[in-house]
Amino acid sequence: MIRITKTATCINRFAAAALIGGLLSGGNSQTAQARTPEELQQIATEVVGDLAKTCPHIPGKLNDADAFKACAAKLAQIKSLPFAPAILWGGDQAQLRVRDRNLTRFRPDVFRDTYMPMLAFTGKFTLARDDRENMDIIRAEAYFRNDLPAGDYPYPFWHSDAKWSAYETMNTMSFYLDNSGRIVVVTRGNTGSEQARGTYGHVARPAFVKDRWVWQDASGGTQPQVMLFASRYRSNNPSLPRLDVAYRAFADNMREASCVSCHAPNNSQGAKKLILLQTPLHAAGEIDWVIQSVDSKKMPEDEKGLQAEIDPKLREAILRTARAFRDELRAADAWEARQRRTDVQGGSALAGRDPGQSGQSR
């Protein structure tokens, strides 16, 4: 049972069964340590307030290019988003337990940097309690930017008319907090208010080409650009050339083993908890899981969900190139971290996005 507890507007300073291997188990196997209404209100005020300041909803400017870019650049600097080491994202499906919902797993920094900029926040929120999962919920009023260039979306959501409609009409992003106060599940929904949205118009996206999750634009550039390393790292990062080579070798081996056909947005195998690998940043977010799963022979699976037999040489090639890719990610992230420290010491504005924990073990 989910109980709505309170509605609020931020005016101060941004004042589940299992999560793939047990991230939620602590919240469900024990009696919840309930937060006081005041504690939850304080958390929500800070989180939603920060989002409203960083990615504000301004009626009539929802799809403004400058507003979108500013939102994407500033999100990495928010310190009030208490994400767990991995999160689940998808439609509300409130009638189901978290374990039964169709959701996608993300490393938080990948989700924050590439999915959250698609939304603009008003600062309004409601609070609720999911008694089945022993989790508090912060429902932030938010609207989707439905008329951005195709390459600004992490993948073509319009591959499914129903999914594109769900994104277009969403007006709420819900954050589920476990007993430790970490955000472990984030969902989108359209049961909130439309009052602040402003003029809404359906956008018909270009026809989706079946299974084309990465494509070339008219000038020959790779899209979606938001999921490329160039969108995450500074152009002078010395690891970029090696990182690109390492990723391509890894991706070639994954395609040979038919990994990407399963780990793609259309979810051809019907996984309850989907893991995406079809773009460079999706793959970067899950590289540790790939190495562990392939090394333990839990992956790849066949269409029945059983261990698939693949050529031992191919399995070794996947592991070799995956580890090389992971190592280059770590090197690229380490260089970015050093540059950010230099920026701070020099008093200059921070450049580039915070790469979070790329390639670091969960």
Describe the structure.
The chain is of the alpha+beta class and 362 residues long. The chain has 2 domains: 2-189, no CATH class; 228-346. It contains 10 helices and 10 strands. The protein has helices at residues 25-28, 37-54, 65-75, 108-114, 161-168, 240-256, 259-262, 280-285, 287-295, 312-346, and strands spanning 2-9, 83-91, 103-106, 119-130, 135-144, 172-177, 183-189, 215-216, 222-223, 273-275. Strand 6 and strand 7 (183-189) form a beta hairpin. The longest helix is centred in the C-terminal third of the chain and has 35 residues, at 312-346. It is globular, with a radius of gyration of 20 Å. The two termini are 31 Å apart. The relative contact order is 0.13. The model is unreliable at 6-22, 25-32 and 349-362 (pLDDT under 50).
Which keywords apply here?
17% strand, alpha+beta, two-stranded antiparallel ribbon, globular, eight-stranded mixed sheet
Please provide the count of β strands.
10
The end-to-end distance, rounded to whole angstroms, is: 31 Å
> Strand sequence of the main sheet, in spatial order?
1-4-5-6-7-2-3-10
Largest sheet: 8 strands, mixed
Number of helices: 10
Task: Characterize this entry briefly.
The chain has 10 helices and 10 strands.
Describe the protein's topology:
Blueprint: E1 2-9, H1 25-28, H2 37-54, H3 65-75, E2 83-91, E3 103-106, H4 108-114, E4 119-130, E5 135-144, H5 161-168, E6 172-177, E7 183-189, E8 215-216, E9 222-223, H6 240-256, H7 259-262, E10 273-275, H8 280-285, H9 287-295, H10 312-346
Parallel strand pairs: 2-7, 3-10
Antiparallel strand pairs: 1-4, 2-3, 4-5, 5-6, 6-7, 8-9
